[in-house]
């Protein structure tokens, strides 16, 4: 394995992921907020995007895990913790509230940095502060 294979692969996959977010319009916070507003102006189209991602994952993951190791690493690095504890529940709730308020989750938020406007820079700053605070105090 060449030393540049992993970073190059990560870059290519990240660009592909960002393009997918753009095509699916998940970088439009108004579209995301409308998806989450099930009692108002609900837009179910993002459910199809998420369902498609889940379907691909459900089909591909078992096939991938039959391999002895990933293509660009010597072993799979899978989560070892399976217990649902208060931290994971509270973290999920904070994530959901933040997603609903801002209309962004981390992937689309970082993709939207290409817009370079005050709103997205404020949201990224809040994300970084929140991430730092969580790692420091939790």
Q: Provide the residue-averaged pLDDT.
A: 88
Q: What characteristic shape results from the CA principal axes?
A: globular
Question: Order of SSEs, N→C?
Answer: HHHHHH
SSE class: mainly alpha
Radius of gyration: 18 Å
First-residue to last-residue Cα separation: 38 Å
- State the helicity in percent bands: 55-70%
Count of domain modules: 1
Unreliable stretches, pLDDT < 50, 5 or more residues?
Answer: none
Tally of separate helices: 6
Main β-sheet: number of strands, strand sense, barrel status?
none
Give the tally of β-strands. Answer: 0
Task: State which percent range the strand residues make up.
Answer: under 5%
InterPro entries: DUF6691
Transmembrane segments: 48-65, 86-104, 110-134
Protein name: YeeE/YedE family protein
Keywords: Membrane, Transmembrane, Transmembrane helix
Protein described:
The protein has one domain (5-137). It is built from 6 helices and no strands. It is globular and about 45 Å long. α2 crosses α4 (86-102). The N and C termini lie far apart (38 Å). With 138 residues, it is an all-alpha fold.
């Amino acid at each position: 394995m060449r030393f540049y294979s992993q970073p190059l692969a990560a870059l290519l996959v990240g660009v592909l992921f960002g393009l997918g977010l753009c095509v699916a319009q998940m970088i439009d916070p108004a579209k995301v907020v409308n998806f989450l507003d099930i009692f108002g102006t609900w837009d179910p189209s993002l459910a199809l995007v998420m369902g498609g991602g889940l379907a691909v994952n459900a089909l591909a993951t078992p096939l991938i895990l039959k391999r002895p190791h990933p293509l660009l690493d010597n072993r799979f690095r899978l989560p070892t913790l399976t217990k649902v504890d208060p931290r994971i529940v509270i973290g999920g709730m904070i994530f959901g509230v933040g997603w609903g308020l801002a209309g962004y989750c981390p992937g689309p938020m970082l993709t939207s940095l290409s817009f370079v406007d005050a709103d997205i820079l404020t949201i990224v700053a809040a994300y970084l502060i929140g991430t730092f605070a969580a790692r420091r105090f939790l």
